[in-house]
Amino acid sequence: MGDTEGFGITIPFADLLGIRWIADEPGHVTVGMTVRPDLMNSWHVAHGGSVMSLLDVTCGMSAKSLDPTANGATTVELKVNFLASATGELVAEGHARRAGRSLVFVEGEVRDAAGQVLAKATGTFKLRHPPAATH
After folding, report:
1. Taking the mean position of all CA atoms in its chain, how far away is CA 75?
2. Which of 26, 32, 73, 98 lies in disulfide reach of 63, CB 3.0 to 4.6 Å?
3. pLDDT tens across 74-115, in order?
4. Rounded to whole angstroms, how far apart are CA atoms 28 and 95?
5. 42-60 pLDDT, tens digit each
6. Separation of alpha carbons 87 and 44, rounded Å
């Protein structure tokens, strides 16, 4: 379903949603997702939880992309504004805007195939690092 291999880690939930890596550079990640029938609500558009999850993964990965030693990012808070209903092919971009030692402030948005902005997000993510080796 999904193709998260480009992230350098396995994200089973993102794979379940069909989220696929498109591109990344430090602080900026682009992913895609197809709105399948099982991701829709009763009005046959993307369920808000699907869109929010897409933004959560995208923003978290943009935070992680700032630190090659991080093995992920945990969502501290995420606010999403839904601007229009989503169907078909979606592209999400995450931009890490400000980073401290462990917390990263991120903005993201989801667009449809025509480039219309469907949802915008702001969030804070905590970078996760492997435990230090003890001897």
Report:
1. 11
2. 73
3. 999 999 999 999 999 999 999 999 999 899 999 999 999 999
4. 5
5. 999 999 999 999 999 999 9
6. 8
Nearest to 27 by CA among 55, 59, 5: 59
For the chain, the maximum distance between any two Cα atoms, rounded to a whole number of angstroms, is 57
**How far is Cα 127 from Cα 74, in angstroms, rounded to an integer?**
6
For β-strands 89-99 and 72-82, DSSP reports them as unpaired
In angstroms, the CA 13 to CA 26 distance is 23
Whether residue 103 contacts residue 93, with contact meaning beta carbons closer than 8 Å, is answered with no
Residues 6+ away with beta carbon under 8 Å from 130? 69, 71
Round to whole Å and give the CA distance between 126 and 105.
9
Nearest Cα to Cα of residue 18 among 28, 103, 40? 40
